[in-house]
Amino acid sequence: MINILLFAHLQEAIGQSQLKVDLSDYTVGQLKEWMENQYPQLSLQNMMTAVNEEFATDDMIVKDGDTLAFIPPISGG
Amino acid sequence: MINILLFAHLQEAIGQSQLKVDLSDYTVGQLKEWMENQYPQLSLQNMMTAVNEEFATDDMIVKDGDTLAFIPPISGG
Amino acid sequence: MSTSFFEIVDKPIDVEEVRKKVVSRNAGAITIFIGTVREMTKGKRTLHLEYQAYPEMAIKMFEQISKEIQEKWPEAIVAITHRVGHLEITDIAVVIAVSSPHRKIAYMANEYAIDRIKQIVPIWKKEYWEDGTEWIGDQLENVPYPKNLPSEEGDRS
Amino acid sequence: MSTSFFEIVDKPIDVEEVRKKVVSRNAGAITIFIGTVREMTKGKRTLHLEYQAYPEMAIKMFEQISKEIQEKWPEAIVAITHRVGHLEITDIAVVIAVSSPHRKIAYMANEYAIDRIKQIVPIWKKEYWEDGTEWIGDQLENVPYPKNLPSEEGDRS
């Protein structure tokens, strides 16, 4: 089970801020594809991601219990 | 009559913060010399001065009613 | 009163509280940056804003920025508080306080902090205009994101 | 509550009061510089300080600095308050607040203001150490003035 977090327009696009999915040992890139198949309204290919609150690359493997967050271009400050 | 203001170590050196003197139409430079004659403990040759709250040069003439201030090197902020 | 140097809050930020965190007997200078909600941007009138954060990660990124500053300027002390939720014009979105023995470093470290916040801290701003809303993306390159801009005809400029 | 943007005061400075003077609906950034009394300078321990000003001229010079800033950065708004009298370690000597639509100018104008204060505003600082006192002169060149330094042997460094 991995925990997926969505923010900003991604959250609004699918009407959810958090998903729990049974997909451990996928890479970040594979999870992006899986999400886009489930939610065709999402475009995640160039989206930054974080695994367990640290920025991650597409080839990183997401393990059971991890939290994956999609990080849209930020605009704080 | 002109009004002379002294600050910081100059004020402490002569024990006065203000003098009223009957010396109109002296230049700033001449007033520096006059002050040094009156108070040999003062060294004013390279001292900045202000006339009526604006920086002034040594050749400026100080008129009756003016305020002349000696401005030691500043250290505010 | 919180003792944490890095906070995400959903209430108005008390600037004095952030300043007091960096007070030090060895500080000759404190710089404070305050990001406020501006009404007009390129001729378009903002009505209000909404900020959203990924708080756990945002705090970690604030700590990373502080670590980077410590490496560059070991004597600098940094505190950062960012607000989330609904903000009105002139409201304070972020406060960065930096103290240092000398002022040059206090300015440089402070500006470094806000530049890095805009690069790596997961916080998002949603603009509310008279004719629409938009989650703003990547202000660094001034590229709106995604494409959901109010029409040009609606501009007040 | 004073409405003047430039003040010399003999009581503790309220940073919030200075900040509020520059709040503007068009400001996206406010920078604040706070000069505080530092304990150690080059290994010498300061016990406390005394500041003296030529207030009428100091206010005029603050206004001149503000005018210079307006010429360089027309959208910047500046407020400055400097304290005089007896100050303890960590006490606030000066507060400079600058608001601007964009942050870069708020930083630049703020730093410009403190640099100019140290050049043209008639305010003097007297240091009290354990082994003597001195009216500090011309910090820009780090030249003590006049020659009345405590002996080197007295240093705690």
Automatic annotation (TrEMBL), chains A, B:
InterPro entries: Beta-grasp_dom_sf, MOCS2A, Mopterin_synth/thiamin_S_b, ThiS/MoaD-like. The lineage of its organism: Bacteria, Bacillati, Bacillota, Bacilli, Bacillales. Belongs to the MoaD family. Pfam families: ThiS (PF02597). The gene is moaD. NCBIfam families: moaD. Coiled coil: none annotated. The keyword Iron does not apply. Keywords: Nucleotide-binding. CDD domains: Ubl_MoaD (cd00754). It comes from the Bacteria. This is Molybdopterin synthase sulfur carrier subunit.
From TrEMBL, chains C, D:
It holds the Pfam family MoaE. It comes from the Bacteria. PANTHER family: MOLYBDOPTERIN SYNTHASE RELATED (PTHR23404). This is Molybdenum cofactor biosynthesis protein MoaE.
